[in-house]
Amino acid sequence: MPSAAPKLSSPMRQEKDSLGMHPVPRDAYYGVQTQRAVENYPISGQRASAALIEAYGLQKWASARANEELGMVPRRLARAIQKAALEVAAHRWDPQFVVDVYQAGAGVSFHMNVNEVLANRANQILGGRLGEYKPVHPNDHVNFGQSTNDTFPTAMRIAARLEFDRLVPQVRACGQAFAAKGKEFDGVLKSGRTHMQDAVPIRLGQEFAAYALAFERCAGELEHAAAGLLELGLGGSAVGTGLNTHPRYRVLALRLLSGRTSHNWRPAADMRFAMQSQLPMAVASSALRNLALEVIRISNDLRLLSSGPMTGLNELQLPALQPGSSIMPGKVNPVMPELAAMVSFQAVGNDISVALAVQAGQLELNVMMPAMAHAVLHAAGILRNMLAVFTERCVRGLKANPERCRFYAGATLAQATALNPYIGYARAAELVKEALATNRSLVDLAREKNLLSPAELSRILDARAMTEPRVPKPEKRR
Description:
CATH architecture of the largest domain: Up-down Bundle
CATH superfamily of the largest domain: Fumarase/aspartase (Central domain)
Shape: elongated
Number of strands: 8
Strand order of the largest sheet: 1-2
């Protein structure tokens, strides 16, 4: 269970808000509203992601710059806010963002954490002291023309886009590593398996080429989701009507934001929609979930193919990274596929949280944004970090066991499928049943029964030929 709110260390300063006076650590760049939130929400010990802090810094910079150009905030104050905001975006003040990720609805507590840090830092730049909020006030100047209700969804989407920008290249790098292995393993014949039972031959390289394509398709889905995050409702103010904002503010702020970043942020077609609906976050979360599902599937395959080494399939050898047992000497476990699966399980769970949060919006606002922001950013971050080590410490080091693979390719009785056009399905099925009952090979039985000539059998049951499309030539049926 999380500990109680942290004890305030001495020396302290006193600050006043609408509820009265309250002590705040003297050297803190945050203020009284943040301090109250720290005491109210000692939930997880987790703080806002670096991406959300960066995104809020960028948004506050753009807003301050726009309000300066429009004459809404005095230039001297706006310039100090802009400098402070860029410092926040550069992660200079990350330790000052102390509100738990689980907090009051809509993200008011974290938003005020941002406003207070920026106000205190701006005042410091202007020669003022922490906690006095002169000449820069967190609400009147840093937050001019803004609300948690439009800035939090804006920052949340910016942060998610930043995380997707970092994730997609890692997804593609993993896919490229699988593709390289697909080429390396292209000549390795093995038995296919469906329903966990023997199937017709396949090449190990073909399996890996399919894995590579799965990652490429996931990258495409992530890019599609990321595109939806570019539409922002900044300027909607309290309920999406733009109250207290200059008519040119929203377009100007997003143009400035686009100029500072590599993205073409655009105003939402309807500011009310951008505040009421968090569909872009649902789409982003589902893309992360779908990536996780593919990772789980493929990591399970790697564990199966490398099972053994004496009593399993043992068609693949995974890099030996660490001892695998505290009691069984010499045991080495598939630690990276296990890691990949567990991280992906968490990402799938996060998507459920996002789904519940997205549907929980009411009327003009979805107040569950802190939960969905944390879930999406957390999932994107752990998937990125996992794929980095999974690619480098597992996929790139995979080795095939060609002899074992060839043994299974020759042993699978599903090769009888290739005989269907020549002797018919029913006759081939009888041949398989007899082979299983007598522990004899298909070739021996087919020859004994004079079903096909030795040359025909050799051509038809060529395992390599079975791994590509070919036109059957049933010249004669016996």
